[in-house]
Amino acid sequence: MIKKLLILSIFSFLMISCGSSKNVRNYSTSKTVHTQEKAENKTKEEVTVADKIVWTAVSYKGIPYRFGGTTEQGMDCSGLIYTSFQQREVPIARTSREMYAQGTSIPLRKVQRGDLLFFKTARKRGKVNHVGLVTSVSNGDIRFIHSTSSKGVIVTSLHEDYWKRAFIEAKRVL
Question: For residues 92 and 108, what is the distance between their CA atoms, to the nearest angstrom?
Fold first, then answer.
């Protein structure tokens, strides 16, 4: 019995990725945008395009995962990034692999809000299959927003073991 639970736990853990499976869940579409409260303290001159893109992405927190999705009905990881950039009139590719071909590589120690993080979360062909948008960097903790098949749109720390192991590269596209 314990062996079966262990195998089931490992299998569930491995299924957390951008495109591993479709997951139908009823999420509240209420938008919690506590990040925007911080923006009210900034002057208009200090607000950047990166801030606006991050605010847009955070407004989708809780939206369920949907393969190929770009709406409040559901989003995949690249759909979240694509939609957030598009709403701020900043062009970007549609898929995580195409996004990976854009921008400039940067070391993690230089990552800033608005940069993209790329991951390989499955043994599928190719290299990149997941992307996240950096929401904050504080005391070395890099937090990013992304859409997972198990939890939908969430904010996660890059210091979590799973994401640390799956991480490939950071890129600046703004």
Answer: 21
